[in-house]
Write a structure and sequence with these properties.
- This protein has 2 domains: 32 residues; 181 residues, Glutaredoxin, CATH 3.40.30.
- By secondary structure, it is α+β, with helices and mostly antiparallel strands.
- 39% of the residues lie in helices and 24% in strands.
- The strands form 2 sheets. An 8-stranded mixed beta sheet has the order 1-10-9-4-5-6-2-3. A two-stranded antiparallel ribbon has the order 7-8.
Length: 220
Amino acid sequence: MSSLERKLPWIIVVLALVAGLGGYLASARLFTAPDAVGDEAPRVGSILLYPKPKPIPDVALARTDGSPVGRTDWNGRWRLVFFGFTHCPDVCPTTLSVLKEARAELERRSPGLDVAVSFVSVDPARDSADVLSRYVAFFDPAFEAITGSDEALLAFTRALGIVYARTPTGDGPYDYTIDHTSSILVIDPSGQLVGLIRPPHLASAIAGDLATLIAQGSPR
């Protein structure tokens, strides 16, 4: 066996490691790269920032009080948006509890910073206005509860990259559960989607990143 043949396996391993490192760096840059030369993207750990903000689709949804929610109704405040349903056994109550803790932690760290939270139900058949309102208020009365028709929800979630699907658990019309995206969307004061927070969700990390993001402004 020649010297080159003996070294070949190690050369392959080194090349694979280099390729893997390059892929990791490219992936990290995808979510944190500044949009223009000279612009510095905020340094955050739990929030994956998009290179460019994405506009929110103008789809007709409604709050539990009946008031409509359109494209411009989320302007003026930083907002965290989570999609789920009130019969959710684990992810939804856990995430809403974390969001409550994150808002409280943000207020302790930076008094006066105001971040809204919106919970969008993808189960309009079971989540009536009364059920949805009481469910969200249990976690925080300040949280906004929203839903809409199946058609409106499907158009809205598709445009934002949110996925959900109903899985039957019995023979009745309401015997089903819903698998759904567990990420939290981050909306800036101009009503644009700037990034997302993937699980596991940690209240302290979310609060710290929001304080940084708000201080430095929306990545553009």
